[in-house]
């Protein structure tokens, strides 16, 4: 098993230009960083985990698998938090992101650094170039 884990981790790191800490408890899908993005639209969701899968859950219960196209990405299993670039987001907390509609995953469309785990419901995914703090949270921070 250890040989398999080493092989899988070395394959992921070999594809990535960014050195990352990868925690095998939560598998976070990722594609190559393509540069910053403007938030042309705005969505808020709660960061949740089911098994090894991370999801964005909207207020109506709709869940999507985020596939990150960010510069850096780290999962901290001790604090149950996700560090995306320079910001940290906690499991159960709200996050905001720009983007369009979610859609079924077509694996051939992306050169994944880390693929969506087979145990995750990848019927709806969304590419995340940047997470931001929810508007209400930003407003409170300015007061």
Task: Sum up the structure in keywords.
about 140 residues, alpha+beta, 6-stranded mixed sheet, 3-stranded antiparallel sheet, about 15% helix, disordered N terminus
Helicity level, as a percent range? Answer: 10-25%
Poorly predicted ranges (pLDDT <50, ≥5 residues)? 1-24
| Helix-strand makeup class | alpha+beta
Order of helices and strands: HEEEEEEEEEEEH
What is the overall number of helices? 2
Number of strands: 11
**What best-fitting shape do the alpha-carbon axes yield?**
globular
Taking Cα atoms only, what radius of gyration do you get, to the nearest Å? Answer: 15 Å
Q: What characterizes the major β-sheet?
A: 6 strands, mixed
Residues in β-strands, percent: 25-35%
Strand order of the largest sheet: 10-4-3-2-8-11
Round the mean pLDDT to the nearest integer and report it.
Answer: 75
Q: Compute the separation of the termini in Å.
A: 52 Å
